[in-house]
Amino acid sequence: MLNKIAQTLSFLAPYNNGAKIGIILGTGLGALVKEMQITHSLPYGDIPNFPISTVESHQGKLLIGTLNNVPVVVMQGRFHYYEGYDMQQVTFPVRVMKQMGIKNLFISNASGGLNPNFAISDLMLMTDHINLLPEHPLRGKNEDSLGPRFPDMSDAYDAGLIALAKEIGSNMGIALQEGVYVAVQGPTLETKAEYAYLRIIGADAVGMSTVPENIVARHMGMKVFAISVITDLGIPGMIKKTSLEDVLGAAKIAEPKMTKLICEMVTRI
Predict the structure, then answer these.
(1) Per-residue pLDDT tens for 206-263?
(2) SS3 label, residue 190
(3) Where residue 60 sits, what CATH number does that domain have?
(4) Which of 68, 74, 116, 172 is most buried when burial is the number of CB atoms within 10 A of its CB?
(5) Is 110 helix (H, G, I), strand (E, B) or coil?
(6) Is the separation of the CB atoms in 214 and 156 below 8 Å?
């Protein structure tokens, strides 16, 4: 892994802008890009050792530039275990971002709401997670130079960044939910019984991403802030057939709020 990271870093070195903030944009959440001043747009296929995003709603580009005059590195689209990649491949870009100098990682995703107080297009600050994915990104030989063998996960999502988001949301009139995100393999959406089970074990939202990136980021000592857009509901009596178009439509409604929130957070870190 270290050799691959070094090879990728060598390729990216001419584009490195000294950013301390990295952002991963999930399904239907690309509007933030319009607020960027992009200096470099690199297709994943051109970057050594990067997987290629196969999900139609993910652009598949590494964007380097500024957001509100703050240097950032942005993944426009991510990778998922259900695409056939292993967890080391899914999280490889996070490893690279850390070595580029990223200290704060922002992650967004589209997810299904399980909490009966949630509504479609709500924003949920992730306060914790439950990992039900079948493979762990730290399984195998540990690279001690990257992080410890047994990383503590009691502070998976940074309390200071969550508090900042809540303050900004209050000032801007952006309603924010909070909750626990559960990661499942996918790509099928859940059955009614699975929704009920996930709620029983303590989840407020369900999705197929974010947790692997979080684990690897925390393994390397990065601070993580994650936000979910509730794009469908897995609540008894409110479950209906959901298409990708439905998810993208719900995300589009929430995008302006999420974009304003993240732009302001980036400025104030």
Answers:
(1) 999 999 999 999 999 999 999 999 999 999 988 888 888 888 888 888 999 999 999 9
(2) coil
(3) 3.40.50.1580
(4) 74
(5) strand
(6) yes
Buried b (16+ CB within 10 A) or exposed e, 83-109: bebebbbbbbbbbbbbbbebbbbbbbb
Tokens for 35, please give them: 């607020």
- The per-residue pLDDT for 191 is 95
Q: What is the C-alpha separation between 144 and 219, in angstroms, rounded?
A: 10
Under DSSP, the state recorded for 53 is: -
How are beta strands 123-131 and 177-183 bridged, if at all? parallel
Is this model's pTM higher than 0.85 or not? Answer: yes
Full 3-state SS string of 213-253: HHHHHHHCCCEEEEEEEEEEECCCCCCCCCCHHHHHHHHHH
Give how many domains the chain has, as a whole number: 1
Distance (Å, whole) CA 153 – CA 121: 28
pLDDT beyond 70 at 26: yes
Structure tokens at 75: 């993944």
**Radius of gyration for the alpha carbons in the chain, expressed in angstroms and rounded:** 17
Strands 205-207 and 177-183: parallel
* CA distances to 160, 189, 236, 241 from 244, in Å: 34, 11, 21, 10
Q: Is the pLDDT of residue 98 over 60?
A: yes
pLDDT exceeds cutoff 60 at 56: no
Do the beta carbons of residue 109 and residue 57 sit within 8 Å? Answer: no
Structure-block tokens of residue 101 = 């100098």
Give the span between the Cα atoms of 221 and 158, in whole angstroms. 11
Q: For residue 123, name the pLDDT band (cuts at 50, 70, 90).
A: very high
CA dist., res. 36 & res. 29, Å (int): 14
Structure tokens at 165: 């988001």
Q: How far apart are CA 8 and CA 10, in angstroms?
A: 5
